[in-house]
Amino acid sequence: MTDELVPGRELAALRALQSDKWRRFGPDVLPAHVAEMDYPVAAPIRAALAGRISRQDYGYPLPGGRDGGRLLAEAFAQRMADRFDWSPDPALVIPMGDLVQGLYACVLAFSDPGDGVIVLMPSYPKIREAVTANARRLLALTLRDDGERFAFDPAELEALASDRARLLIICNPHNPTGRVFSRAELRALGECAERHNLIVLVDEVHADLVYTGARHLSFAGLDPAFAVRSVTLNSATKSFNIPGLRCAVAAFGDRALLQRFSQRIPPRVLGDPNVFGLDATLAAWQDGQPWLAAVLTELEAARDRVVTVLRAAAPAIRIRAPEATYLAWLDCSGLELPVTASDYFLRAAGVALSPGQAFIPGGSACVRLNFATSPTLLEHILQRMLDALTRG
Ligand SMILES: Cc1ncc(COP(=O)(O)O)c(C=O)c1O
Q: At 318, which helix (H) or strand (E)?
């Protein structure tokens, strides 16, 4: 298997990477677990990083200057206005090392130990962790497959909000189900937050990865009453494939909210993003769109292929076509496997998938498959999985 995966990247080149995706397992395993893509990054990002190196420009950033985060905040605000009809105030956008750091900081700033935090489940593991590792109570709002899509029950949301909840965390588009929540669903979440005076943390890191037929709506852009109680977290790490460069933003919907946050979390605790992360994120948000549009076409084809192949050849695996993200949530309970689904596919197929139990307790019959790879490698991954099932 030495095929060129995407122009410029062969399997050997991927295996030489130092990332979790390509280092965690041995050479006999095809990795489809951690959420990053096998595509080379956009040319404007590569040029920005090369420029920094050629200038040997590694000094302290000038506060308020280009490297001080001001341009990043402006670029983020501009991108939200251009793409998602939401105009955050750049003065209320703060840069940080990564989005998960922002989640942790907001949980610490806006709640106390023992407080309830509502989380859509299954959930990206680090969102759950931001709640439980800080001794807050996780109030699970379960997304259930209603025959058409994964959806939450508004009555359950209302009951959870009444249970000493202080925060609501919305991941939209949703990892791992790939849902893009509708205006009505987001309004139901926002109105419940208003009734119960909840602060809403909105993780929109997958907002750029939305497929034909769906449209991402920014929660804070839906209603000024939602904005004032929200913090939106985002980064270019997923859509532009630069997670190792560590740069993210938190956009506060209200000055008083940012002041409250800063009283508990002094800016020095958060630190500043690395200048390489800033350069790459600026290049991505300002000049990366043509690259992203091309990648989205590839990802949509890959998504369709995964759904078509698995539905036809392994109907016992339940799969809903994700409306966004390059992740597919597979419910393998119909296979009645003797071990967890991720262990099964790792051992029997040599394919690494993210274990369902990391996303929801009791979810060990589920796995999350990352399909952001070349058509060739994706065929090998699917074929290995199907061959393992055929062998029994
Ligand atoms: C929902 C969600 N939030 C946050 C992250 C991580 O973002 P960052 O790399 O900026 O910490 C991921 C990564 O997969 C994710 O899926």
A: strand 318-319
Pocket of ligand 1 (CB under 6 A): 35, 98-100, 124, 171, 175, 203, 205, 235, 237-238, 243, 248
The torsion of the CA quartet 380, 382, 383, 388, rounded to 10 degrees, works out to 120
Which of 233, 262, 287 terminates a domain? The answer is 287
Phi first, then psi, for residue 385 (nearest 5°) are -65, -45
Residue 223 neighbours by CB distance under 10 Å: 15
Angle formed at CA 70 by CA 67 and CA 71, multiple of 5 degrees: 75
pLDDT of residue 189: 98
Q: Is there a single domain that holds both residue 75 and residue 206?
A: yes
> Looking at the domain assignment, is residue 317 inside a domain?
yes
Q: Which domain holds residue 296?
A: 3-40+289-391
CA of 283 to the centre of ligand 1 (A): 19
pLDDT at residue 2, rounded to an integer = 39
**Does the structure show a pLDDT above 50 at 204?**
yes
Domain contains 45: no
- Ligand 1 mean position to 130 CA, how many Å? 12
Which residue, 287, 318, 338, sits at the end of a domain?
287
Distance 125 CA to ligand 1 centre (A): 10
CA distances from 308 to 62, 79, 113, 301, 317 (A): 52, 34, 46, 10, 12
- Give me ligand 1 centre to Cα 248, in Å: 10
Q: What is the pTM of this model?
A: 0.96
Which of the listed residues 19, 237, 329, 370 should we mutate to test ligand 1's pocket, taking the one with most ligand atoms within 8 A of CB?
237
- Same domain, yes or no: 377 and 265: no
pLDDT digits (tens, 9 = 90+) for 80-108: 999 999 999 999 999 999 999 999 999 99
**Whether the predicted pLDDT of 341 surpasses 60:** yes
Question: How many domains does one find in the chain?
Answer: 2
**CB–CB of 220/232 below 8 Å?**
yes
Distance between CA atoms of residues 149 and 310, nearest Å = 17
The per-residue pLDDT for 233 is 98
